[in-house]
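We append the chain.
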Amino acid sequence: MRRDGLILDRFLPYRLSYTAGLLSELIAKAYRAHFDLSIAEWRVLAHVAERPGISQQDIGDRTRMDKVMVSRAAKSLHAKGLLERAASGTDRRALILRLSPSGKALFDRIAPKALELEAGIAAALSASEIRELHDMLARIDAAAAARLDGKRV
C-alpha cells in the first residue's frame, strides 16, 4: 500500500544514515578482528595520522562525533600506547594529539586494509559514478552545514 508523504526508503537523511551505519558496521567488524580497534578509535587514529597535532575538538568537528566519544577513543588509544596527548600551548584545556611510534606503525598497517575495503565497496560503481557521488556528498554537506548555520540554501 502506497502512502503519500514520508517514505523512509526514499527519505534522503534516512538512506544516508542507513548506508553510513551499514558501512560503519562492516568496517568495525574488520578493524575489531584485525586491529582490536573500535570505529571511534579508528576515526581518531586516522585524523591524527592525517593531521599530527590536531585537537580533540577539531576531530569532533571534522567527524561529527560527540566530544565524549572522541575523548574516550583518545584515552583508549593513549592507554594502548598508540597516541600521545599533550595540553595545547594556547589553551590548557585543549588536548593536542599525535601518533606514537606504535600508533604510526599500526596506521601504516591499517591504511592498506581501509583502501582495500573501500575498493571492494566502490567496485559496485564506475569511476565516473564515484566522482559524481563525491560531488553529490559535498553538495549535501554544504547544504546541511548552511542550514545548521541558519542560512537557507
